[in-house]
Design brief:
The complex is a heterodimer of chains A (about 110) and B (about 150).
Chain A lengths: L1 E7 L2 E7 L6 H15 L4 E8 L5 H16 L3 E5 L3 H9 L8 E2 L2 H6 L3
Parallel strand pairs in A: 2-3, 3-4, 4-5
Antiparallel strand pairs in A: 1-2
Helix pairs in contact in A: 1-2
Chain B lengths: L14 E9 L2 H17 L4 H22 L7 E8 L5 E6 L26 H8 L2 E5 L4 E6 L1
Antiparallel strand pairs in B: 1-2, 2-3, 3-5, 4-5
Chain lengths: ~110, ~150
């Protein structure tokens, strides 16, 4: 999985490309988010437009960090999850935990 | 009732498309999921169904590798894929581990478990596939997609 992080407004935008599943993808995203939180950034946006699938490990990761960011006064928001990713999140009952946006700008603006 | 795949009736009215025994590591999971994806595409299975089967297989294989084999690549996981004449897909994953009691798995949708970072794999498999059976004390899963 390719992971790209850049500062946008008051948030860190994390762009992902590839399946978010157990293994290097989940490990990489975990490390990335931990580093971001370690830098004091608690407003995170995950752009999932190029993520065709999220497995239960990936779901566990984003749910865990949603809780972590909120505990620190921030949030973790999602941009453009695929139809199948939305279905998967809904199936395990966590879809409604997340704020979901159609594009990066809307997600960034939501933090102000 | 779909035809059962048993060791004593490996054919029956089922056509075997894949039968792989691989070391228990995550690279092997990718190898098998890629092979299954290719088979599903050859069968012209609709995309939505391909995604659902692919994710269920991913979950079953990871469970076999991580829980069944404790990530020990000296152990092996087996995956088999068959199709029946009406196009129904049967996938079986087995591991040599200690097994588990699937009935004792907690419900990941309980409110107190919402923010847990694990424990959703079996639940997800049951949502994605049409018929799921655990056999051999939890060491084998048989999943149908109609």
């Amino acid at each position: 999985m390719d992971i790209n992080v850049r500062k946008r407004g008051s948030a860190q935008l994390i762009q992902l490309r590839g399946a978010l599943r157990m293994g290097p993808a989940v490990d990489g995203l975990r490390q990335t988010i931990e580093e971001t939180l370690g830098n004091g950034d608690t407003r995170l946006i995950l752009n999932l437009a190029e993520v065709p699938m999220i497995d239960s490990s990936g779901i566990g990761l984003v749910v865990r960090f949603l809780a972590s960011t909120k505990q620190r006064g921030g949030n973790l928001k999602l941009v453009q999850p695929s139809k199948f990713a939305i279905q998967t999140l809904r199936l395990v009952g966590v879809l409604n935990l997340f704020e979901i946006f159609d594009n990066d700008d809307a997600a960034i603006a939501s933090f102000t | 009732m779909p035809a059962d795949l048993t060791d004593n009736n490996p054919g029956g009215d089922l056509s075997e498309l894949l039968n792989l025994t691989v070391p228990a590591d995550l690279n092997s999971v990718d190898t098998i999921t890629d092979a299954i994806a290719a088979n599903l595409e050859s069968l012209q299975v609709p995309e939505q169904k391909r995604l659902e089967i692919g994710l269920a297989v991913q979950e079953a294989l990871v469970n076999a590798v991580v829980h069944g084999c404790k990530g020990d690549p000296s152990k092996h996981v087996t995956c088999r894929m068959d199709v029946d004449p009406s196009g129904r897909i049967l996938i079986m994953v087995s591991d040599p581990g200690p097994g588990f009691d699937v009935e004792r798995l907690p419900d990941p949708k309980q409110p107190e478990r919402t923010h847990h970072d694990h424990g959703r794999g079996v639940y997800l498999i049951r949502q994605l596939m049409d018929d799921v059976r655990f056999e051999r004390g939890g060491r084998q899963i048989r999943m149908w997609k109609y």
